[in-house]
Amino acid sequence: MTANMVxxxxxKDVQAYEPPAAFFDVAEETGSVFxxxxxxxxxxxxxxxxxxxxxxxxxxxxxxxxDPAVADVVASAMKDWAMEKGVTHYAHVFYPLTGLxxxxxxxxxxxxGDGTAIWEFQxxxxxxxxxDASSFPNGGIRATFEARGYTGxxxxxxxxxxxxxxxxxxxxxxxxxxxxxxxxxHKTPLLRSQKAMADQAARVLDLFGHQDIDNVVSYCxxxxxxxxxxxxxxxxxxxxxxxxRTVFGAKPPKGQExxxxxxxxxxxxxxxxxxxxxxxxxxxxxxAKTRHNEVAPGQFEIAPVFERANLASDHQQLLxxxxxxxxxxxxxxxxxxxxxxxxxxxxxxxxxxxFGNNNQGNFLNPGDNPHDNAQFLVFCAAIIRxxxxxxxxxxxxxxxxxxxxxxGANEAPPAIIxxxxxxxxxxxxxxxxxxxxxxxxxxxxxxxxxxTLPDLTKxxxxxxxxxxxxxxxxxxxxxxxxxNQTVAAPMVVINTIMAEALDFCASQIxxxxxxxxxxxxxxxxxxxxxxxxxxxxIFNGNGYSEEWHAExxxxxxxxxxxxxxxxxxxxxxxxxxxxxxxxxxxxxxxESRFEVGVEQxxxxxxxxxxxxxxxxxxxxxxxxxxxxxxxxxNVGALKAAGVEADTADLLAVSALVADLRAGLAGLKGAVAGxxxxxxxDEATYLRDSVIPAMDAVRAAVDALEEVxxxxxxxxxxxxxxxxxx
Length: 725
What we know:
Blueprint: H1 5-15, H2 30-33, H3 41-47, H4 50-62, H5 71-84, E1 87-94, E2 102-107, E3 109-111, E4 117-119, H6 123-127, E5 128-129, E6 149-153, E7 160-162, E8 168-178, H7 187-207, E9 217-230, H8 231-234, H9 238-243, H10 268-283, E10 288-293, E11 299-304, E12 307-308, H11 309-329, E13 332-335, E14 349-357, E15 361-362, H12 374-389, H13 391-397, H14 401-404, E16 419-420, H15 422-433, E17 444-446, E18 456-458, E19 469-471, E20 476-478, H16 488-514, H17 519-534, H18 546-555, H19 563-566, H20 573-581, H21 587-640, H22 648-674, H23 679-705, H24 718-723
Parallel strand pairs: 1-8, 16-19
Antiparallel strand pairs: 1-2, 3-4, 5-6, 6-8, 7-8, 9-11, 9-12, 9-13, 9-14, 10-11, 14-15, 14-20, 17-18, 19-20
Helix pairs in contact: 7-11, 7-16, 10-11, 12-16, 12-17, 15-17, 16-17, 21-22, 21-23, 22-23
């Protein structure tokens, strides 16, 4: 049996793929299922007494404190609703610092003394749970001998039902904290940061004379990129199974250079997967809106409608788990790693950010004449200040070993955090810097030379896909986030730095008005000051260019190229002061997140280094040596027959085998050197010594893949994984 028979068998399995039966009644109206598995406000209104419903609604919509007295009533109604839908168990769902979702399932069944059981769900159980806190990443906050942790019901994120053929589960989104109150999750600081931002935004609204200031919230619209690969191929790739990315793989004959995959026709198998995922998402109340092929072969994207940041974060986690589950039912694996395949675009998760409330609307809507919209200009100027002062924290918020492969390449924004405003806003702020804005560039009409088409509107400003923080009409798009991460991390930073910037703006205007300055003059002075002090962060050009890197250095912008460069941003005096001032992180929590970030980076690279060594040693090297032997035997046979033998192929393969052996020896030595180190020193060593050693092994392996006989190569190739679905 030849080594490539396993690959050929996998290809045969793909070709013989039969789609699963439809998950849903195809005649069922899609709109009728939206939110049917969510204990939403509408579901509560039907089941709760009016006074209880009003109390819960005030907590959800206005941010009022939850009245504990209503918990028993809500819990009973929630249990009855869930059991009518086939639920037998409930789970407090939380989001630990693994970046994944965690859950602990308990039954509604409670035994009673006469040998029978009742179905019960009390308010205290709804409000609080108690998982083990020491077994999750916590940076030293919890040890095994002090393992108590608590989950707490997040009323603003509705409970939902996860369906399974063997029984359904009621899922209750919660925070996760230690016994001593420190946040051990991503949700708790997100809620804190949103409150901090809301308080300062309300001060600005008050200065502009608003009387009916509703609860201010941040909104998030994350665009999710991902790859789909047939499970038969993934099962033959230990690197994909264990690391989520390929540590080897020669460039395929055709990659993405033709740009023919982007927005191309969606393959039938993928479209079937998309239909099923979207229907599942709709039932969970997740507003999936857009789907399309992405730039790389085998890569796709989904974008939901904007939601409150806290709910958007929960929905993103749920979306990823849903995609993984449905993909497997379709015989595929959904890959969220930022760079699963070298040489083609990686995957991001663009975080579209805005903030506002029910009464004043979206604060980042400039209107037709932004130069006359002073309130918008103040909010926009606050973002300029925030990003300039705290670009390092924004970079930190998207830092991971996976995202290091992607940031800075010509597929994602650079690690330098800058702002793109577009022609219209850039012109307005330029006028402000010169003494005052009096005009705004207007939208135009696009003439495409086709008489049968109606007039097409041309925006007043272009888009810039190379900018990490770009204004896109009525929001800012933070494009640097990685596909595999929670959107809570960047949203925590955005909310917190916005709280500081809005605090500054409100305080400046208040102080000026208190000394007799006209309000409008105070606003104009504030805007001019921000442009003068922080305009260096505005860049509308090509962020991919080398010239920009040099210019950014002159402007004083940080270029934190790797996660190791970024992690110390947690512990700077400025970061400590920022997060403590606005009550988002205390000292212990910042220290813990630094330690967890270092630990996860180290573990990721150690796993990848071990995979590189194992696959190269046990799979690639034997195949290469067998091919080398075949070539040597052929040369010997030709010489014995008196035929002149060409030894070029043998010498080339022998050189690559020698390179591979040398690379493996270097990698093993480099990994051994890491054992003497710990913490950030180990992370730095892995970046500077182990990654280059892995790259050396990869170079030899990828070169061998291009010359070793196909019947000896057992690893599915890029060409197969990216193109056969």
